[in-house]
């Protein structure tokens, strides 16, 4: 797979019937190894290993109901009370991070109302902190560690 702008990660990859699969430790199952899934697995590993996000408080493919339609958030990070803190949206490395991508994640946030929105294509990563009291959005220089997420959510 393509080298990403993330720490090295050696996931469990298998091949069946000419197709590659990657083991997702959060969902505890093998899933098709698409470019977007490669980004997801490498980014989640980065959050857990480098940013100290507790594995048990990170979930992949979280379903939300938006305007009576089921939508899936790529990754949601929770606090110890299982309240959502951040939504992460992934794109394949060949997909540019555009305003449209942020609009997609913002729609999911209509349901979850998190303080952090994170978008990554594995090469570029963006994080913004939402300030509901002033209706503003602050783009951060880096992805915050888990402690920062929990402290700023109060």
Question: Could you name the key traits of this structure?
Answer:
three-stranded antiparallel β-sheet; 9 strands; 3 helices; 154 residues; globular; 36% strand
Can you describe this structure?
There is one protein chain. The chain is an alpha+beta fold and 154 residues long. The protein has three helices and nine strands. The protein has helices at residues 35-49, 99-112, 146-152, and strands at residues 13-16, 19-24, 29-32, 58-66, 69-78, 84-90, 116-120, 125-131, 136-139. The strands form two sheets. It has a six-stranded mixed sheet with strand order 4-5-6-7-8-9, with helices on both faces. Strands 1-2-3 form a three-stranded antiparallel sheet, with helices on one face. The longest helix is centred in the N-terminal third of the chain and has 15 residues, at 35-49.
In short:
This protein has helices at 35-49, 99-112, 146-152; strands at residues 13-16, 19-24, 29-32, 58-66, 69-78, 84-90, 116-120, 125-131, 136-139.
Question: Helices and strands in order, then pairings?
Answer:
Elements: E1 13-16, E2 19-24, E3 29-32, H1 35-49, E4 58-66, E5 69-78, E6 84-90, H2 99-112, E7 116-120, E8 125-131, E9 136-139, H3 146-152
Parallel strand pairs: 6-7
Antiparallel strand pairs: 1-2, 2-3, 4-5, 5-6, 7-8, 8-9
Shape: globular
Range of helix content? 10-25%
Q: Write the H/E string, N to C.
A: EEEHEEEHEEEH
Main beta sheet: 6 strands, mixed
Q: Whole-number average pLDDT? A: 94
Strand order of the largest sheet: 4-5-6-7-8-9
Structural class, please?
alpha+beta
* Total strands: 9
Gyration radius (Cα, Å) is 15 Å
Low-confidence stretches: none
Report the span from N to C terminus.
39 Å
Percent range for β-strand residues: 35-45%
| Alpha plus pi helix count | 3
């Amino acid at each position: 797979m393509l080298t990403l702008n993330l720490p090295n990660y050696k996931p469990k990859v298998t091949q069946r019937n000419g197709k590659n699969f990657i083991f997702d430790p959060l969902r505890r199952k093998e899933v098709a190894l698409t470019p977007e899934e490669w980004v997801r697995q490498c980014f989640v590993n980065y959050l857990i290993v480098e940013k100290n996000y507790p594995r048990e408080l990170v979930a992949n493919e979280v379903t939300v109901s938006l305007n009576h339609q089921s939508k899936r958030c790529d990754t949601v990070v929770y606090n110890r009370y299982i309240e959502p803190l951040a939504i992460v949206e992934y794109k394949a490395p060949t997909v540019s991070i555009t305003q449209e991508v942020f609009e997609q994640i913002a729609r999911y946030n209509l349901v979850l109302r998190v303080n952090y929105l994170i978008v990554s294509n594995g090469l570029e990563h963006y994080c913004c902190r939402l300030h509901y009291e002033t209706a503003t959005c602050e783009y951060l220089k880096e992805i915050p560690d888990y402690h920062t997420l929990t402290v700023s959510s109060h």
